[in-house]
Amino acid sequence: MIVSPARLLILSLSDLRYEWPITLCIAVGVAAALAPLLILFSLKNGLVTSLLDKLREDPRTREVRLVGQGHFDPGWFETASRRPDVAFVVPMTRFLTASMDVVSDAPGREAVTVELFSTAAGDPLLSRFVQVPEVATHVVLTRQVAESLGVAEGDTLTARVGRFIDGDRQLEEFEISVLGVLPAERFQRKAIFITLPLLVAIEAYREGSTVHLDIRTPASPVFQDTRFASFRLYARSVYEVSSLRDWFAQNGHHVVTDAPAIERVLQLDRSLTRLFGIISVLAGGGLLLTSALSFWASVSRKRRELCVLRLLGFSSASVALYPVLQAFMVAVLGAAAAIAVELVLRPLIEGSVAADIGLPVDTSGLRLHHFLIAIAATVSATAGASALAGWRAARMRVPEGLRDG
Amino acid sequence: MTAQPALDIEDLIVDRVSGRRRFRLEVPVFKLGNAEVVALVGPSGSGKSTLLDVLSLILQPTNVAKFVVKTTKGEVIDLTPVLKGGFQSDLDRMRLSNIGYVMQTGGLLPFLTAEANVSLTGQMAGLSATEARKRTYEIGKRLGVAKLMKDRPSRLSVGERQRVAIARALCHSPSVVLADEPTAALDTVTGHRVLGLFLELAASTGTSLICATHDTELLDHFGLPRAFYHQDEIGPDQVRATFSFEGAR
Questions:
Q1: A319 touching chain B per CB within 8 A
Q2: Which residue in A265, A295, B20, B52 has a CA-CA distance of 20 to 30 Å to A284?
Q3: Which residue in chain B is spatially nearest to A2 when comparing CA positions?
Q4: Average per-residue pLDDT in chain B?
Q5: CATH fold of B7-244, please?
Q6: Is the Cβ–Cβ distance between A253 and A70 less than 8 Å?
Q7: Res A364: pLDDT
Q8: In-domain check, residue A61
Q9: What is the C-alpha to C-alpha distance for residues A377 and A374, in angstroms, rounded to an integer?
Q10: Is there a domain that residue A210 lies in?
Q11: B96/A1 touch (CB, cutoff 8 Å), yes or no
C-alpha cells in the first residue's frame, strides 16, 4: 500500500529528530563538503571579478601603444575607428614636438615642461572624471602638473611654445584655462590633454611650417593631407586587446599592450575554474560516498523499524522512499548550514585575502541562484546516493527483520 | 450449517533451507473460529514463527490448497490464488484490515510516542486521525496504558511496551491477532497480567488469537488450547514439522 507522502515525510522527520545526534553528524558531513566549495567558488569569483574589474575600470589596460612612429593618414583613422573592437582613437603628432612649458600666476612656481596629448569626445581616459576640451584654449591637466603649478579647475595658465629657427630662439605664448584635473591614478606623468587642432598647430609651429602659432583653428578642421606620427587608441573591452594587437602586427606596426596582464587574469580564471572543478569532483565524490554509506548503514540499523513499517502496510516503494526522504531533509539541513558558514566567513576571508594581495576582493558575487544551485546539487547527490539504501530497504526480508534485536 | 471460521487453511506447506539443512513445515488443516484462541508450542526452530509469518501474510507459503479469511466485516475472502502468485500489495491490504501482530519485544517504532505507534495502525487501516486516536485511548485504557500514551517507548517498561504493542495490534479491530512469544521478555507476574489482559480484550472484541510461546506454564494457567506439534526426519538433513489443529488440546 502506497503511503501518503505527507505521512511518510512526518514519520521520516520524526525518526531524524529522534536520532538527532546521527542526523547532525550526517548534516555536518554534508556541510563540511559543501561549505569549502562555496567559499572557494565565491573567492574564485570574487578574486577574478575584482582583477577583471580593475582591468576593465582602467582604460590604460585597453590601450594599444605604438612603438616608434609611423605615417597614419586620415583614412587609416577612419578605418580604425570603424573597427568593432576599437572604442576610441585620436591622432597624435611626433613625440618630440608634443611638449610645451606652462606657467601659472601662483607665487613661487616655476615653469613646468609638459607632454601634450590630443583628446576628443569619448576619450575613455578622461570621461567620467573631467570634461573633454572642445576648444584650443581649454585643457585638462594631470594631477602632477596641477600640483606643480598650484592650480585647480577654472584657473588660467600661460603656455609657452618655443622653437629654434636658424639658431634663433623664438617663443609664442598664449593663455589656456584649466577645464579639469585628471586624478593621479589615471595618469601619472606631467602631461596636458589638448584638442587635436592645437596639437597639430604646435607641431606645425615647432617644425617651422608656420610663421606664428595659430591657435584659432576651427573646431572641426580638415586634416586631408596630414600624416600623423602616432595615435592614442583604446580597445572596446579587455577581451579585444589581443585581436587589435594582432591586427597591428599584421599591418607591420609594432605595438605594446596589456594583453599579457589580461591573459594572466583570464588564465587565472581558467586555472581556478579547473581547480574548483577538481575539488568539486573530489568533494562531491566524497559526499556521495559518505551519504551512500551513511544511509546504507542507517538501513541496517533501522532494519527492524523498516520491517515494522512493512508489517503495518507500508509498500516496498514507500519503505524505499523512506531513506531517500531522510537524505533529502538532511541534505537541505547540511546545505543550509554550509551557506550559513559561507555567509559568516565571507567578510573574514574577503578581508584576509584582500590584505594579502592588496586588492579589494568582493565575494558578494555569490547570488541567490548560486545558493539554490548548491542546494539542488547537494540534495540531488545525497538523495541519489541514498537511493541505494532505499533499494536495500525495499528488498529486506520482513520476517527476518522483525526478529532482529 | 457451521459458521465460517476466521481462518480456514488446508495443506499449507512452507519449505525453508538453512545451510545444508532443509526444513518443511506442514499444516494439514487449520480452522480458527471467531474469538477462538490457540497456542503454538514447540522448541526453538520448530517453525512457530514461520507459521506466524505465513498467517500474517508477510511470507508466502511454498504451497497451500486453501487459505480463506473471514474479514472483520464478515466478508469471506479466498486468498489461495493470491498466495500462489498474486500481488504482495493485496496481501498487505488484507493484513492491514484483518490481522494484528504482536512481536516478542513489542516492535514499537522508537521515534513515535505510544499514541502515534498505536494510532498509526488505525490510520493505515483507514480510520481518520480522530477515530484512530479515540480508539487508541479506548484500548489503552482497558490495557492500563492510556496515561502513558504521550511517552516514547524508551520511557516505558518492557511490560508497558508490550501492552502498547497489544493495543497497536487491536487498534484497527482485526479478526485475527498473531502473537509471537508476547510474554517472553516479561517476568512471570507481568507475563500473566499482560496475557490475561490480552485474552480478555480479544474475547470482548471477538478477535481470534494465535499465540506462539515456549511458556507451557502460562498456557496451563489460562487453560489455552494448543496445536499438536510433531517433528520427524524425512531424509538426511531434512526435517518435517507438522502443526495439527484438529482437536487442539
A1: no
A2: A265
A3: B89
A4: 87
A5: Rossmann fold (3.40.50)
A6: yes
A7: 60
A8: no
A9: 5
A10: yes
A11: yes
